Every structure is written in structure tokens, then in C-alpha cells.
């Protein structure tokens, strides 16, 4: 596992994150022969408003505000599409959705969830996947879902805590 933690983790230009995410989304969709429709694109953009996962109801409310057809089936279909395309992940313990910054590289979503600011970071750790598959198979179990969500304090919040004390 490679760690990229530093105290500037969250002090970044988030517009760049959003811009890149939308660019990647366009590329991933055209590669898959899919269309990033208006509602899909706007849903993705809203999920990317921050690094805090967004719940389906919050998304629904925001889309309704903007005059989209925000009937739950429409919104859930858009979420299903974004999930299937690998553009977002579902953070199960928060029952909310997170934009993926590596949508062009298929991977399992493993998450570091900050108790303090609720920001969620992904960490890429192929070894976990391989060991889980292997260990489960030893018990004759076929793995279908892996929910790995670790909670704690992020670098930014830790820095803030130590500067306050
Ligand atoms: Zn960002
Ligand atoms: Zn991801
Ligand atoms: Zn934090």
C-alpha cells in the first residue's frame, strides 16, 4: 500500500477534481458505448461536490431543485448506471455515494472514512482482494461483494487537532 498522506491533502483545488472526473466519465462512457445523459452527468457532478459521500435522497432533492425529472426511479437508474460504469462507489456504512477518481482503472472500492469531517478516501490495495478471494475459497465460498470501510481520523483533521492542543 502506498500512502500519499500529507497535511495538504484537502487543501486542494477541488474544481480540478470535478473537471477531471467529468472528463474521465465522458471517456469511460464513450469507450463503453454508453451515453452520459444530462441527468447522469449532473448526478455525477453533484456527487463530486465534495469528498463526502452523498446520499440518494440528498441527490434527489438537489436534482428536483434544478428541475430535473427527480422521480426516484430516474435518480436510482442514474445511480445504477454510474455504479455499473465504475464512476462512483457506494459507501455502504454511510448509505451514500462517492465519486471515483480512478474510474478508468477498474478496482474494488476500499475506503478510509474520517469520523471528524466525513471525507472518504479510497485506498488501492490489491493484496486484500487476493487474500480475501483465497481465504474465502478455502472455505468453499465464492466471494461476491467486499465491503471494506475503515474509520478514523484523516491527515487534515489530525493536523488540526494537534495544532489546537
Ligand atoms: Zn477534490
Ligand atoms: Zn474508486
Ligand atoms: Zn477528516
TrEMBL record:
One of its GO terms (molecular function) is DNA-binding transcription factor activity. Keywords: Cytoplasm, DNA-binding, Iron, Metal-binding, Repressor, Transcription, Transcription regulation, Zinc. Its cofactor is Zn(2+). One of its GO terms (biological process) is regulation of secondary metabolite biosynthetic process. Its main location: cytoplasm. It is found in: Cytoplasm. Zn(2+) binds at residues 114, 117, 154, 157. Binds 1 zinc ion per subunit. It comes from the Bacteria. One of its GO terms (cellular component) is cytosol. It holds the Pfam family FUR. InterPro entries: FUR, Fur_C, WH-like_DNA-bd_sf, WH_DNA-bd_sf. Belongs to the Fur family. Homodimer. This is Ferric uptake regulation protein. It comes from Marinomonas aquimarina.
